[in-house]
Write a structure and sequence with these properties.
77% of the residues lie in helices and 3% in strands. The protein has a two-stranded antiparallel ribbon with strand order 1-2. The chain has helices at residues 3-27, 36-57, 61-83, 89-113, 120-147, 162-173, 186-218, and strands at residues 152-154, 181-183. It is built from seven helices and two strands; from the N terminus they run H-H-H-H-H-E-H-E-H. The longest helix has 33 residues, at 186-218. It starts with a helix and ends with a helix. It has 219 residues and is mainly alpha-helical. Helix 1 packs antiparallel against helix 2, helix 1 (3-27) packs parallel to helix 5 (120-147) and helix 5 (120-147) crosses helix 6.
């Protein structure tokens, strides 16, 4: 098999697998309240999906080390917060998650915007990047709520948990805005507005980038 074709298939499998893993992970978060086995499965998937993808998509040493270290951190702090929660375990998993997502965003952004041609793997990476941004903001919102309780309010009076904030984050990123959860604190409002702006600008910038690459390739 041609080395170039093998390389392309490897990246296609990696980006496709990452996108599938993110979608599955975002659907199985109810497992975190379904018992010990569910918690372990959830955090195991969470801690491995970015690490495996990053090691296959980049050769930059510091990115590989950063994603491995932060992946290990989210697994350990996630289990501690689930099985032996303390005052610090909640913020520990949120901050570890922010770092974990930030490193993956760098990996995917480099891969997506440095690509010379627009192929299926680039589109899959770009889609994954969008979803990773959404889940990172969930950790940011959870951190804000931890530092300033009451920063978010539910119209149904439900307790504000990180699971609820994950849902809220994607609603905000896509600018759907159902209104069932509202940011009531200054920092919460600032980050919510920032995420909404990113959601709109990312789509516009990505579309312009992909069209430009496609036009250049045809010329």
């Amino acid at each position: 098999m041609d080395a170039g074709a093998s390389h392309d298939r490897r990246h296609l499998a990696t980006t496709g697998g990452l996108l599938a893993a993110i979608l599955v992970h975002n659907l199985i978060y109810p497992l975190t309240v379904a018992g010990p086995v569910g918690v372990i499965v959830f955090y195991l998937v969470y801690a491995l999906m970015f690490v495996i993808a990053a090691w296959r998509l980049t050769r930059v040493r510091w990115l590989r080390l950063a994603i491995a270290a932060s992946g290990a951190a989210v697994f350990v702090t996630g289990l501690i917060n689930a099985f032996a929660p303390t005052g610090a375990s909640g913020i520990a998993i949120y901050l570890a998650s922010i770092v974990y997502h930030a490193v993956m965003i760098v990996v995917l952004a480099r891969y997506t915007f440095a690509a010379r041609t627009v192929m299926t793997d680039v589109l899959l990476a770009a889609t994954s990047l969008y979803l990773v941004i959404g889940s990172m903001f969930a950790a940011i919102f959870a951190s804000v709520e931890w530092f300033a309780p009451g920063s978010f309010a539910s119209s149904a009076g439900a307790e504000i948990t990180w699971q609820l904030l994950l849902y809220y984050s994607y609603v905000t990123l896509t600018t759907v805005g159902y209104g069932d959860i509202t940011p009531s604190g200054f920092y919460a409002q600032a980050f919510a507005a920032f995420e909404a702006v990113i959601g709109v600008l990312y789509t516009v910038i990505l579309l312009a980038r992909l069209v430009g690459k496609h036009t250049s390739a045809n010329e």
